[in-house]
Amino acid sequence: MKQAATKISKLLFLGLIALLPARAMAAVDLLPLHGMDEDGIHIQPWINDTFKDVLDDMETAKIEGKRLLYIYVQQGCKSCKKLHEINFRYPQIVDYINKHFYVVQFNMRGVVTVTDIDGKEMGENEFSARSAVNKTPTLQFFPTDLSALKGKHGINAEAYRFIGYQKPEIFINQLAYIQGEHFKAEPNFIKWYQGATDLISLDPVNDDNLAIK
Predict the structure, then answer these.
(1) What is the pLDDT of residues 70-87, one digit of tens each?
(2) pLDDT tens-place string over residues 114-173
């Protein structure tokens, strides 16, 4: 049953792309690659380098009028590579992220100290496990209202999460789904997507030099 459900979900996602409206625009250039750090984790100039204190990150995001987004990756993750080397090279996607989200990245197997909402300190690896993150990439979105936490931490503190890689036009609409808080009325992204009338379509890009096809 689980395998059948997975196959159906994949077919639905393939069908979703056909729902996106066509746009006749001049192609734009992709953003440059920014390489990896010494731990083999992709870097981006717009990802925030913080002390990885969840409450501090949430408060900073709130001050900037954004929603906190934690992205979990790991060395050797092919889907993380696609996220960084394809999706994060689309100017439209990066502009949308910077406008609406305060992003911090975690190495799922890292040991950098993280302070959870309850004040407990631990390594990135333990924090990832505490947040029930066992696959990458995982995108974890937090509430914009700090009072909604009510003593929660880890997975119980999040507003929503996406697991795995999606192609750019699906990905930007996942972000729009969160930004518009559509998950509150329809917790199933696929169902929302199938019925949405205001989907975002990406401007065409010069993709001849994409690192991954």
Answers:
(1) 999 999 999 999 999 999
(2) 999 999 999 999 999 999 999 999 999 999 998 888 889 889 999 999 999 999 999 999
Q: Which amino acid is at 123?
A: G
pTM of the predicted model, to two decimals? 0.87
* Residue 106 binned pLDDT confidence (cut-offs 50, 70, 90): very high
What's the rounded mean pLDDT across residues 86-108? Answer: 98
**What are the structural domains, with CATH classification, of the chain?**
27-206 (3.40.30.10)
Query: What token pair was written down for 25?
Result: 């625009």
| Residue 13 confidence (pLDDT) above 70 | no
Q: CB neighbours (10 Å) of residue 134?
A: 11
Q: What's the CA gap between 119 and 88, in Å, rounded? A: 32
Q: For residue 43, which amino acid is it?
A: I
What is the full DSSP assignment across the chain? -HHHHHHHHHHHHHHHHTTSPP-----EEPPPP--B-TTS-B--TTS-----BHHHHHHHHHHTT-EEEEEEE-TT-HHHHHHHHTGGG-HHHHHHHHHHEEEEEEETT---EEE-TTS-EEEHHHHHHHTT--SSSEEEE--S-GGG-TT--GGGG-SEEEES---HHHHHHHHHHHHTTGGGT---HHHHHHH-SS---PPPEE-TT-S--
Burial of 45 (0-12, 13-18, 19+ CB in 10 A): exposed
